[in-house]
Amino acid sequence: MTLKLLFPAIAALIATGCSNPYDFATQKMQAQNQPYANPQGYGAYGYPAPQQIGYAQPQYNYQNNYQMNYQTNYQAPYTPQYQGAARLGLRGGQAQAYPGYQNQAYQQQGYPQQNYQRQNHQNRGYQRRGGTPPRSLINLNYETLNFFEAPLAKEIGDTTFLLRGRVDTPLSYSFENDNDLDASVEGNFQISAETQLPNRITIGALYAGRGIENNGVDYDDQFAAFAGGSWGTVFGGNVSNLVFENTRRKRGVSTLELEGSNTLGTLAKWSGGYQGRYGPAIISGLIDEDENYDIGVTLQRPLGNKDYRLSARHNTGQFTATDGFTKIDTRAVSAVGEYVYGSTRYDIGAGYEELENGQDQADRWFASAGINTKKGVWSLSAEGHIGEIDGKSEKSALLGVRYDIARGLAATAALDYQDRVVAIDGVNYINTKDTRGVVALSYGF
Fold first, then answer.
1. C-alpha distances in angstroms, 324 versus 124, 210, 320, 427, 431?
2. Whole-angstrom distance, CA of residue 49 vs CA of residue 56
């Protein structure tokens, strides 16, 4: 019922943006820039007009939401005596007195005039009114899909298309399952299309796919749509992993993932929710068709030459036991702490989960920790997990190394250990026990 109400609400929001001829954001920008239109000065900001100091008046079109470049263009050549003026900006603030700056021509201070000529907004990275950000507002595939700084992008009309993906050729060797040697080809990709409406709301859709070729092709795909603005983003589709990915410990450097660090219970395949940033905090929430939910908050900010991230999560869900038909309901809380110094990251996570199967109940405690570091073209990660379900232990570990061969191309190797076999009252909750080595060649685009 909740999802049936959510999708019409999103459609109504988009329709309102398309039909509203009055552009509130543009009108607000015009009002904010009224003082600058005065050729005699900058109004409340107390600066002289450009003509008074020997520079041509800028010809920017404020309706296209381009900010004047005085702050950036004039800041670099000044000595510390004038840096305070550059920090004032053009979007608000109080006028201040800057000795030796006002009513003096730049040439008198020894600064060449050509250093202050305005630059084309397109060369300075200003985004045009119909443009979209370089990355989608949400994701469906959270693996490290490429090693580029940004995904491939193409703009057609007012719509931006983003594509990123990765192809792996892993070779796996099991030390426990009769020395089994397994080779496969795996591919991941995500493509999105998004545009901005006249009322500054960005709408878009994503499609992601994952295929594995190993004596046959196994393919799985996902789809989602979203609408977002300064107030956040609402979305719906196959987004059940979004809150977990926002709050989890970061992945290691190999193509594998540490088993057991997530809760056992998850949401159904179709769900919808909201995500928004409030200062340094990101708040996200989901609810699925079975009325299970997942909410989380992440707080991240630098402190000196270090970076810290804290996250908390609460969720309900369901999973199927290894027998293939027993459904187990779950309720869990978890938290993660992360510390980054230089090229090294340390993180730790812990959680508690209640498991309920009819009249049977069990408690699960779990914790994981890891380190990730990079030195030149080499990257190394080491992770470990421990847990307990009703007194029965589970544990896993993952060691990974990556060598960057070229831009987009890397070789990885990993040692994966799992000992997670738990049966309660004749029901196998989890049943995985293996030690394997995996090497792979990966190319991201």
1. 57, 23, 6, 10, 12
2. 10
Instruction: Please tell me the distance from the alpha carbon of residue 282 to that of residue 274, in angstroms, as a whole number.
Output: 11
The full length of the chain comes to 445
Provide the pLDDT for residue 378.
Answer: 96
Query: Which residues lie closer than 8 Å to 15 by C-beta, 6 or more apart?
Result: none
Structure tokens at 84: 């305070």
Question: Which of left, alpha, beta for 16 (phi over 0: left; psi -120 to 50: alpha)?
Answer: alpha
**Is 284 strand, coil or helix?**
strand
Chain Cα centroid distance, residue 57: 40
What is the Cα–Cα distance from 282 to 278, expressed in whole angstroms?
6
Contact 49, 60 (CB under 8 A): no
Q: Which domains does the chain have, with CATH numbers?
A: 33-124 (no CATH), 132-444 (2.40.160.10)
Three-state DSSP state, 5: helix
366, 385 Cβ separation under 8 angstroms: yes
pLDDT digits (tens, 9 = 90+) for 284-336: 999 999 999 999 999 999 988 899 999 999 999 999 998 888 899 999 999 99
User: What CA–CA distance (Å, rounded) separates 421 from 101?
Assistant: 73
Q: How far is CA 103 from the centre of its chain?
A: 46
The rounded distance, in Å, linking the Cα atoms of 386 and 370 is 12
Is residue 247 a contact partner of residue 256, using CB atoms and an 8 Å limit?
A: no
Q: How far is CA 233 from the centre of its chain?
A: 13
How far is CA 327 from each of CA 20, 203, 357, 423, 430, rounded to the nearest angstrom? 48, 37, 7, 14, 13
Model confidence at 177, pLDDT cuts 50, 70, 90, reads confident
Q: What six digits make up the tokens of 110?
A: 């020894």
pLDDT tens figures, 267-281: 999 999 999 999 999
As given in the structure block, the two tokens for residue 4 are 């049936």
Burial of 275 (0-12, 13-18, 19+ CB in 10 A): buried
Q: SS3 breakdown of the chain: % helix, strand, coil, rounded to 5?
A: 15, 50, 35
